[in-house]
């Protein structure tokens, strides 16, 4: 029941994109394609750009999945001239060419059933449609004739910035619909990515549109090379981050393999901690630190001679909890992980007023996970009530209430929960 509204938003966004795409294709088929060499060149550029979509739903790198495809799409939407001659393609043809090329470029992903392809296509159609509607009708009616030289370039950049901001809102709305997470932090994270890869997309799109207007289609391969190289570098960086995360997750399983904690405990604590962190509006870098610290929060138990029954450290004396936490932080530092991750692991057993927010979250979520496991029937409600009773001295009240909100939404699927 709690996910009905997000699902409705997802349906609205997908339906709007589908109607725009279908209408544009019908209009283009009926009236034919204007400037076919230009349309073909931009279509090939967009299709090649879309072939670089990530192969999995996990995307630790840039927010824009295919920046070369985005730049080519936006450049075509803002194209007014070709080698000094005015173009006559309109909004419908821009959207139709981008849709056809994007679908062609996404065929490998669709065949494998991998990646958030539908959301990506909806974003692409809506963003390009917005840019084309803002530019093409006004340009074709001569509204931009007085904008020449630097003024015209600034106008294109302004339209691209507006388009990127619109795309950020759509992306946050799609993520909200998929996950049920709060919209405001999702939008903030999308906007924070704009000065990075978003600025490169805007600059490349504007430069390609201006260059094609002067020298023709030969400008496309020349001006897309820098963005292509940047994209390849970002892909390699994202692959390194994904490998690092997998290493952290494998290290976190050491306590499970050694029999110190139940199977899947670290993954469940990490997943639920991230959901609570999103509810508390943590930024993306803060959520990454929270995830890594939650995965390794029990690593200090490897120093124990005798395992704690079921790995339930929440019931140990405070001094013993702190000793295990400090040992865990020392182990994390030896792995070369971020010092912030080690600090969170070390301080998870401190009194909560002295803890950073990430440590407060892990402490409450870890206790909840242990109490649910031991409470039997009605475990979640019983465990949550016990946490609320402990907010006077053990658990941060704002974290417990955020945990209650996350659980009430029922939109989280915990790893290993079946």
As a percent range, the share of helical residues equals over 70%
Structural class: mainly alpha
**pLDDT < 50 stretches:** 55-62, 411-418
The total of helices stands at: 18
Description of the structure:
- By secondary structure, this protein is mainly alpha-helical.
- The protein has 18 helices and two strands.
- Strands 1-2 form a two-stranded antiparallel ribbon.
What's a concise summary of this model?
With about 425 residues, the chain is an all-alpha fold. The chain is built from 18 helices and 2 strands.
Layout of SSEs?
Layout: H1 4-31, H2 36-50, H3 67-77, E1 81-82, E2 85-86, H4 91-105, H5 107-112, H6 117-140, H7 150-179, H8 183-192, H9 194-215, H10 219-252, H11 254-257, H12 265-279, H13 284-295, H14 318-334, H15 339-346, H16 357-375, H17 379-389, H18 397-409
Antiparallel strand pairs: 1-2
Helix pairs in contact: 1-4, 1-6, 1-7, 2-3, 2-4, 3-4, 3-6, 3-9, 3-10, 4-6, 6-7, 7-8, 7-9, 9-10, 12-13, 12-16, 12-18, 13-15, 13-16, 14-15, 16-17
Question: Main traits of this protein?
Answer:
single chain; 418 residues; mainly alpha; disordered C terminus
């Amino acid at each position: 029941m709690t996910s009905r509204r997000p699902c409705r938003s997802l349906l609205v966004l997908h339906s709007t994109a589908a109607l725009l795409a279908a209408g544009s294709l019908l209009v283009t088929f009926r009236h034919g394609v204007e400037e076919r060499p230009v349309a073909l060149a931009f279509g090939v550029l967009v299709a090649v750009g879309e072939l670089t979509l990530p192969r999995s739903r996990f995307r630790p790198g840039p927010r824009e999945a295919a920046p070369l495809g985005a730049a080519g799409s936006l450049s075509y939407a803002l194209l007014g001239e070709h080698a000094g001659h005015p173009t006559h393609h309109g909004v419908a043809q821009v959207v139709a060419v981008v849709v056809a090329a994007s679908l062609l470029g996404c065929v490998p992903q669709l065949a494998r059933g991998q990646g958030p392809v539908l959301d990506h296509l909806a974003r692409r159609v809506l963003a390009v449609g917005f840019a084309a509607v803002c530019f093409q009708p006004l340009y074709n009616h001569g509204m931009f004739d007085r904008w020449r030289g630097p003024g015209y370039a600034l106008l294109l950049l302004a339209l691209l910035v507006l388009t990127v901001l619109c795309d950020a809102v759509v992306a946050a709305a799609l993520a909200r619909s998929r996950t049920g997470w709060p919209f405001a932090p999702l939008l903030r994270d999308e906007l924070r990515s704009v000065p990075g890869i978003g600025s490169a997309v805007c600059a490349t799109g504007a430069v390609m549109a201006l260059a094609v207007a002067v020298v023709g289609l030969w400008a496309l391969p020349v001006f897309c090379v820098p963005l292509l190289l940047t994209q390849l570098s970002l892909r390699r960086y994202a692959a390194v981050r994904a490998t690092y995360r997998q290493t952290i997750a494998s290290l976190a399983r050491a306590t499970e393999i050694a029999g110190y904690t139940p199977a899947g405990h670290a993954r469940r604590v990490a997943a639920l901690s991230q959901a609570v962190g999103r509810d508390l509006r943590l930024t993306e870098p803060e959520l990454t630190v929270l995830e890594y610290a939650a995965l390794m929060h029990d690593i200090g138990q490897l120093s124990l001679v005798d395992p704690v029954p079921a790995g339930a450290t929440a019931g140990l004396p405070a001094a013993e909890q702190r000793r295990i936490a400090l040992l865990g932080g020392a182990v994390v530092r030896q792995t070369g992980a971020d010092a912030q991750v080690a600090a969170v692991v070390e301080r998870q057993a401190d009194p909560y007023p002295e803890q950073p927010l990430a440590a407060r979250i892990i402490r409450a979520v870890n206790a909840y996970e242990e109490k649910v496991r031991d409470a039997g029937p009605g475990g979640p409600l019983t465990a949550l009530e016990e946490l609320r009773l402990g907010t006077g001295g053990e658990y941060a009240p704002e974290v417990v209430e955020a945990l209650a909100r996350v659980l009430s939404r029922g939109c989280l699927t915990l790893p290993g929960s079946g």
